[in-house]
Task: structure prediction
Amino acid sequence: MENAEIARVLSEIADLLELTGGNTFKVRAYRRAAQVVDLHPTSVAQAWREGRAAELTGIGDRIAEKIGELVEVGECREHARLAALVPPGVVDLLRLEGMGPKTVEAVWKGLGITDVAALEEACRSGRILEVPRLGPTRAAAIVAAIARLRARAGRMLLHRALGHADEILARLRAVPGVRQAEAAGSVRRRKETVGDLDLLVATTDAAPVVRAFCGSAGVGQVLSEGSTKASVRLKAGLQADLRVVAPESFGAALHYFTGSKSHNIALRTRAMKLGLKVSEYGVFDREGRRLGGRDEADVFRAVGLPFIPPELREGTGEIEAAEAGRLPRLVEEADLLGDLHVHSRASNDARSELEDLARAARALGRRYLAITDHSRARPLGLDAARLAEHVAAIRAADRREAGGPRLLAGVEVDILPSGELDLPPDALAGLDCVVASVHAHFDDPAGRNTQRLERALRSGVVHVLGHPSAREIGSREPCALDLEGVLEVAREQGVALEVNAMPERLDLTDVGCRAARAAGVPVVISSDAHEASHLANLRYGVWVARRGWLEAKDVLNTLPLAELRRRLARSPRAAPRPPRPKQRAARAEEETHAEAHRGDVARHPSA
Ligand code: DGT
Ligand code: CA
Ligand code: CA
Ligand code: ZN
Result:
């Protein structure tokens, strides 16, 4: 058990004692103990197990016993006893800035408020003013504190977190003496959501950097400020941690704070076997001589590995792959030549004209753009007749737009709950790019969802399965799905799976990409732009694909248009392949590469 967790329980006991009228000395003793544990430099749990609990000065025997209980059995009876006396939501009220135990007790016992939502409602309705000493100003402060609590509870989407990081980094880079300033942590690994920002600066003069950081525009509260590190809570709710290091340690620190934790552990284990020590300060040999650490590459070089891109550092086999010389050459944004899922104003939820889209895509250097507006099941989408007109308009615009990109005529056809497509096959037959996706009925059981998708894939007219899980991060859970089964059918039918690059979708996920690659199914990375400005979002999809170990050859829209057309303009599979025998799955990762390559010819004899 981590110190932080032990400290949390101890401090919750203090809270509960206070809410239940416990003895103030006892309350204070628990609070002090919580703080001691929290700030203890080494593992308290380990100290307990090794019989060194005495080194925890400031903790009495009674509380030490509670810690022992926590360490041994993972919970403590005193905590459970007290928690039973207080409705669970009431302790949450104490998490709100500005709500002490007295106020919490007053709203709980006075107004019967037992959770954050009820408290918010009471603030908004004014009922809270019935509590003595609670005026409108405090009510407003409580509402603000609730908003911050909510922001804190959730992780932030990568694109927003990156925005905050870039803003602060720009400020830090402007401080005289700063050599380098970078984001580490999950932001650098391009994880889809971010728990907090980890920023790193190289300089010999830390003080002005810490000052600039704490004084950044977006900072709501300075949580701690030291000589070479600081933590702040941004007004947006996100926490940001700063570390200032000497330039000769920057690479080692960047590696350490980029993580992930499991990658770091795997790398250090390897270093130890080589008689080396890797820390955030550098790489050291047995005699403690420093071998490097200025550049991140030093760390990998010292342990005899090639540079591992941050997106792969999740401790899921990247060290082994690096060791075997089998790291993928990850796809890059510049590899993408076009975008295969774009909405124009023919979709009722999109605004841009074909010309606007073409212009924006041209500025981004895209060579082709498939216009894929919604079919009719989406309100005011295209029925067969309107689709035919729209296709003519796209073809005409394509002839007009001499400077490129080439405009491809497509559609995003809805997959109905039955698995049928929402437009007849002959309306879809002549299109350059048919994206089929689910937009409703997300809650069906896995079996039915899987059948639904498989049926759509077997229609013989679908090129791409759009946002396969239909999730929206933080607001809609992914559909229950047998992805392996869907991939099997996609492979047999020659259908690609989409990595939808909208920051709140990112669907396929990184894990899904890896599964697609293992199954020999190509992906396309698409913006799903609903406005011309969204065309730039492809990079978020590229990061997902990179985290999913994909190379350019795994991604169809890295192909030049002629080749892409050959790849898409295939006739439906005549006879489905037999299901793959299970024992082959183990070899899949190796094989599928070769197969994906051969597939171009083998699966499309017409080409
Ligand atoms: P997040 O913030 O939840 O999105 O994810 P991270 O990966 O940014 O995690 P964070 O902020 O807790 O820590 C940043 C990095 O610092 C982490 O990826 C690796 C390193 N790190 C933190 N704690 C430990 C640790 O206990 N052991 C090791 N080896 N590395 C750690
Ligand atoms: Ca972090
Ligand atoms: Ca952190
Ligand atoms: Zn769409």
User: Anything to note?
Assistant: The longest strand covers residues 406-414. Residues 185-186, 191, 194-196, 198, 256-257, 259-261, 264-265 surround 2'-deoxyguanosine-5'-triphosphate (ligand 1) (CB under 6 Å). The longest helix spans residues 136-153. The chain has four domains: 3-151, 156-243, 251-323, 333-603.
